[in-house]
Amino acid sequence: MSSSAQIGVTGLAVMGRNLARNFARNGYTVAVHNRTSARTHALVEEFGQEGTFIAAETAAEFVAALERPRRLVIMVKAGEPTDAVIREFAPLLEPGDMIIDGGNAHFADTRRRERELREQGLHFVGTGVSGGEEGALHGPSVMPGGSPESYATLGPMLEKISAKAADGTPCVTHCGPDGAGHFVKMVHNGIEYADMQLIAEAYHLLREVAGYSPARIADIFRTWNTGRLDSYLIEITAEVLSHVDAATGRPFVDVVQDQAEQKGTGRWTVQIALDLGVPVSGIAEAVFARSLSGHTALREASGGLPGPSAEPLGEADAAAFADKVEQALYASKIVSYTQGFHEIQAGSDEFGWNIDLGAVAAIWRGGCIIRAAFLDRIRAAYDTRADLPSLLSDKSFAEEIGAAQDDWRAVLVAATEQGVPTPGFSAALAYYDALRAARLPAALTQGQRDFFGAHTYRRTDRDGSFHTLWGGDRSEVTA
User: Mean pLDDT across the stretch 44-63?
Assistant: First the structure.
C-alpha cells in the first residue's frame, strides 16, 4: 500500500466519518480505518466520489498508507477505548509522527497521553472539535493542543477544513501545550450548558408568566435572533418551538419528556472549576438543573408542595414582560461567558498554557454550538486588553449589563411571585451582585471558622493572620 495519504481517520461512526469526508472534500487523500472493516468499505462506496480515500482493514495497512510525518486522527469514545487505540497504533509509528484525539477527552487524560507518547518521540494532539456531525462535515470549530511542532504541520490542514467566521478567519487556533485544547473544549461545553439553560428559562417564563404558546414564543426568538442575541442556539430554539408533532398535532415541546440528559463535559467544567477555586455558578446551576429534571420520583413526590398559582399577564403587560426577559437573558448570557473565560484563564495559569482568550473567542464565532454574534465583541475586548480581569470589566459590557439590571431584577421578582424556577438567571444575578458588592458576608464566615476551628482570619486594618481566643476575655493573638 502506497504512503500517499496526508491524514488518516480511525473510528468511523458519524463524527469520524464526516470528519474524514471533510478532509477529502478539501483535497486531501484520507486513509480510513475502523475496527469493523465493513464500515470502512461502506464509507468509500457511499462517499468515494467526494475525494480520495484509502481503505485500510488493519492497523498496519492504515499506518503504511500515511505519508510522513504521519497524522493519525482517533475518533472513538473517550476513556479506555481511546487508550486501547493508542496502544494498538503507537508501536507502529516512528518519531515525529502524531496521534490526534478528536474526541471529548478529559484534559487530564490528554496531559497523561501527551507525556507518555512524548517519551516515545511521538506527538499527541488533544483536539476539541465542536459543531456536531454537521460541523464535522461542513466545518467545525477546532481547538487543538499539543506541541508547536505538531501544529506547524497539522495546523494548515485544520484551518482548511474548519468553519470560517464572517470575516473569513478559520475557526481554529493552537490553544497551547498538552491538554489545553481539550480544556478549552470542556469549558466551551460548560458555557453551552449554561446558554441552553438560560434559553430554556426564558421560554418557561414566556410560557408560564406571559401565557404565550410555543409558536408565539418561536416568533419572539426569531425576532431576538435578528439583534444582539443572534446565535445558533437562539436560531434552533425557534425551530424546535415552532415544530408540531405529526402524530398528535400538539407542539413538539409538549410531547417530549422534560428530562434532560448529559454526557459529562458540563460536570467536568464544574468539577475542575471547584479544583481551581473559580466560581462558575451559572454553569453549575445548568448542570444541576439537568440532574434535577431526571429525578422523576423526587419530583413526583414533591409535586403537591404548596406554591403560588401562575396567572398569565394581559397582552400589553405580556409584551412588556417579554422585553424584560430579553434583557435578563442577555445579561445572564454575559455572566455565563464571563465565568467560562475566567475558568480558561485560571486553567491556563495553573498549567502554564498561555491561552490567548481573544483567539478562543474568535474561533467560537463559527462552526461551534455556542457561536454567536457577540463573540466578535468578546474577541475585541481581549484583543484590546489581554489582561482583562473579567468581561464585566470591559466598558461596553459593563454598560449593557448595567442598563439591563432593572429589567433583570423585575423578571426574577415575577418568577418568584409566580413560582417559576429560574436557577440560571438567579445565579447569574447573584454573581453580578457579589462582584459589585463593597463587602461580602464572608467576613462573618471567617469569624465562624475561627470560632469553631481556630482557622484564623485577616484584618482590614493591619497585615498578618490572627486568631481570637473565644471564651474568657476573647483576646486576639497573632497566628
Answer: 95
